[in-house]
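Q: Structure tokens for this one, please.
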Amino acid sequence: MSIISSIGRKHIRVRALLGMIYILLSLGAVTMIYPFFLLLSGSVRSPVDARDLSPVPGFLFNDIVLYQKYVEALFNESLDAMNVSYGLDLSSFREITPPQQVRRPLVKEWRDFLKKTRPPPYACACGFIHAPISRTAPSNLREFKRLLSYRYGRKITRVNTSLSTDFFDWNSVYVIPEDYLTRRRMPSNSPFQNIFWKFKMQRPTGELYYFSVDGFYRKLFLQAQYSRNIHHYNLTHKTSYKSYRDVHLSAAYPVAAPAPVRHDWETFVRRTLNLLWIRVDPECTDIYRHFLRARYHTCSALNRLYGTHYHSFTEIPLMTNLSFSGAALRDWDAFISGWHDPATGTLFIAPARYIHISGPDFMFRDYLKSKYAHIGTLNTALHTRFKTFEDIAPPQRENHYLLFIAHRGKARREFLIRNYLTVLNYILIHGRGIFNTAIYCTLAVLGALLVNPLAAYALSRFRPRSTYKILLLMMLTMAFPPMVTQIPLFLMLRHLHLLNTFAALVLPGLASGFSIFLLKGFFDSIPRELYESAALDGAGEWASFLHITLGLAKPILSVIALQAFTAAYANFMFALLLCQDHKMWTLMVWLYELQQNSSQAVIYASIVVAALPTFIVFVFCQKIIIRGIIIPVEQ
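A: Here is the predicted structure, written as tokens:
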């Protein structure tokens, strides 16, 4: 019978009361659902949209936000790499927008240039390979790991042996984004580097970005000296440029330029620019040989360091194929930068008039010059308005944008799942976290369903004199938090030599005072006539326990099993204390280890992944839980 009759519900005050109750319940539901959606939304974010606190991620319906995330991942979360390659001066990835004009003919020329000339592997960097801020596993990093796993097997030791690496496990495999613009970095020429280069050069052009020497000169050299404001540069050089984008690096020494421009050019080339992009004319060969003669005096001394067999210095050619390491590279660096002979004080240095600069942007300009010869012809063919060939920059931004438009769906799926894939890969690869958790939860549930019913049945069926004292003692255990008993339990289990075993995890929580108290109260409510009738039919004590007692207590036993599963699955501190061996760590311990070196988004994703098993169990066991709550009340 309902509390309010059907006639009473028609009254205006009752309807208002019921309406208020429904409103309050709805608000309560919203306060529970809204944080959950914030958690889900936060688990798919990256630094570019981390400040957005909407319950629905913006990149799902906003292409501009998706494009920002795409560019951020493409440049491996390096803002300088994007500014240099695109010729921009932005302070955040949140400021990047799609290009206002897409020059498709010029983009086609850029793609044809890449196919025909095939720049060397060190001329570009692979995108989607590193996430130092998000600390997640981008798509190309996952693909590279699959390649290594396919080629060398699943054991990381085989990868280390074959490629001379020292990775601890698959989750520690990483690739540092290449940056061969500054002089301090050179390719390593190692087996790992070579296999990565083969992988990189097989990626689509939309997943690569090519280094811009011109952009590097403007963004990280000139602005570092003259500030970001072009006004300071104009005052020093007596120019009238509107922005740094109007300043271009000359491929050869600018003889006719003002002195400050020549000084900047020579300082940049001799001290800052990577040797990979510096070329010296053959006319400088004799000067280079005199430099080596002054440095080594004899060919035998040079041969010992170079590993060569020259008979005289006149046989040594000018370095054209640059070595990535060794004495030859050091000597070439000294020749470009300038070297003083300590014996005579003579300065040996490559004359500036013989030096010129290479790079993907200069190579692209030369390619267009050879194809169109005159800038007017190029503008007519490509529908552009360039004044000189020096104004042309590789249209990487437009090329990337066109490829982004063509693969927007793929980009959305990638950003939706990559943090979750990072978590799943971590827990699946690391140790035996899932296996240990499954064994631990199974033993905990079986122990709870075995020990607690037996203890409650003994107290209820046989009613010893000390029943209430035992119950009181069990209830007192609930008055102390688990942290109080951790140290004594640890010392006891260590004394029994049970640390780093499943017994150490299961035995301390095998009996529950609350479960025994709950089961005893339910067993007391079972009519004793049922046991007497079973005894008359020849049933023993075990038969009565199994068929009568446990048969009637299935709902409560289900609730106890769920509680045991939840307690075991969520056990972290106790599991870490008792099992410090990595091979015995449970899932919660591994997730805690992951969270120590992860971003906020990956932490949110790990929380969602960790909550899934418990959520699934409770979804499928709702009826059992409700029956476990109602039946004891009805009894």
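A few notes: The radius of gyration is 36 Å. The chain has 29 helices and six strands.
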